[in-house]
Amino acid sequence: MFKIAQSDIQQEIKDTKFLAVISDDTTDVSNHLQNVVILRYLVSGQVVERFWSFCSMKQGDAVSIANVIDACLSRVLPNAEDKSKLIAQCYDGASVMSGLEGGVQSIVKQSYPHAHYVHCYAHQLNLVLQQAVSQVSQIRLFFANLSGFSVFFTRSPKRVAFLDKSVGRRLPRSVKTRWNFQSRLVLTVYEHQDDLIECFQDIIVNWNGDQTTVREASGLLKCLQDRDFLGYLDFFHKIMPHVEILYAQLQRRQLDPVFLQNCKSNFIQAVNNVRSTIPHIFPPITPASTSAKRPRVDTSDEEKSRILHEVSDIIISHFCSRFEFSNHLASATLFNSESFEKYNQAFPSQILKSTAESYPMLDESKLRSELAVIYSRCEFRQCCGAVALLHLLQESNLTETFSEVIKLLMILITTPMSSSEAERCFSTLKRVKTFLRNTMSDDRLNALAMLSIEKKFIRESSNFNQRVIEMFAHLKERRATFLYK
């Protein structure tokens, strides 16, 4: 059954022009290292990401991972002339994957010279935010205190009972590698400040147990009453929704470099808008607060505003550097509809030259002529993203007229921007290979994973059930006859 599904995928890849590979690894419930291979390509103008297989590995070094990927690619691209089909490979930014000398991407590129490496942009967004938090001590302290809220309520069911009584919802756990959890924690604490204050006061008064809980509840209560903490919480409450939006966009299967450029511009504009509100974030000091005992070291409002400006600048600068479209991804800027009018006045010759060097299968002179026509026509300036422009050209029956543009658009759409599909496959792995089924073979694991991950593809496959029956019927001689003529 698993081989039948793979043969259908092989047939799809045979009919497509370009292919990209996505790979990542994780540890299953049996503590075995599992590497997943996903193939991305176009089917009838729509991008698909097909699960190929899980591969159990004894070692997680670059050579072992590259051999696994090469073994999978050699099955879907068996001929030497097919190697030019592989135009992209997407992994995380670990050195074993991204190393220029001995990394997986460099080893794969030796056999597939057009397979350009893409560092998963969802991972890069996580790195941007980690840099913004770690470089400023006050913000690092703020997130340390903030994570204390979720940690406090994960230690005891009795504490959770107080939380359910006052707040009515649980606090998300803080995870370093998943910044959407950090943003949810910020939003939850901000929206339920009064309820959390009531909860901690209730614990301090009515707790019957260890004094550690009372001491920690008192400390968290002081955080919620601290003016600096609330100011930083207000700032990140304005930032995090935009992070959530971008994080969700980076997990779309239909994401292409051109659309990601628009997402990049929107995110930078949103951060700049929040940056302009920084002087009004910290509330004025009331007479009651001035009469209270002040801490020995107090940070002025000007200094706190400077800190938040610094955090905003760090986010923007690191975001621009990590989301910079250079080398092979510079070709995405050729289809930025907002720049078509400017390109009509001054053609981007340098970007076109870089694109032709990255993808030798393109005819540079013909591509230049076709792009010049697109830049001069108003109807193409309404398209947002490479997918929309490709569909417009196909619906207008212009595939032959703009053959090189179509080819470049297919390359851009096929190029993956994130390895989110690998994370989704790992979720399926946890559901399929559980503690009670931890001794299943790799063939059975891949078969069950294929049925779960690619169920829509299998349902749409012609005569799939009949072919499975015929395969089992011909495996060996049986007493019962499964095939009737």
Automatic annotation (TrEMBL):
Single GO molecular function: protein dimerization activity
Domain HAT C-terminal dimerisation intervals: 399-455
Protein name: Zinc finger MYM-type protein 1
InterPro entries, sorted: HATC_C_dom, RNaseH-like_sf
Annotated organism of origin: Holothuria leucospilota (Black long sea cucumber)
Recorded superkingdom: Eukaryota
